Amino acid sequence: MPDYLSVKNQLFDRTIEKLIDKDSSIDIDDLRTFAFFKHELLVYRRLYHLWSLYLQAGRGELLKEDPTNDTKHSLRCYWTTHVKLSMSTSDRRLLSTSMTNEEKHVACESFVHQHLEKYKNKINYYQQQIDEKENNMTHYIDIIKQPIEIIVSKYGGRPI
What is the pTM for the complete model shown? Predict the structure, then answer.
């Protein structure tokens, strides 16, 4: 659980308590769980976007604008240091020095695809959890959804 959503921090509780009646049967822990799912969805969407950029860079699909003649040029294929370090941390054999450049390229692309698939699965999982929570909180979700999204985007949108 991120700090801004924790019970100890009280930020989330104080913000939500301003929006709901004290006599309400709304369970703040259910709202905290909902906010956590929103937070995780945000994190994994950002990771998916980042690794999509890594894939584009590795394939040479990132475009660079040429200000002198209004054209765009594809940059050379480049696997970021982050991808290479992640691969070597994951399994030293993934980028063996005995591999050809083509083999390294294929290994990097495969590694990035694996991360994208993992993040896509996480995105789908958390979206499903959010949908289920919304279905269970139908009588008050309209009141509470936007404030929770604001809290998550403000405090959970920290750099990865």
Answer: 0.83
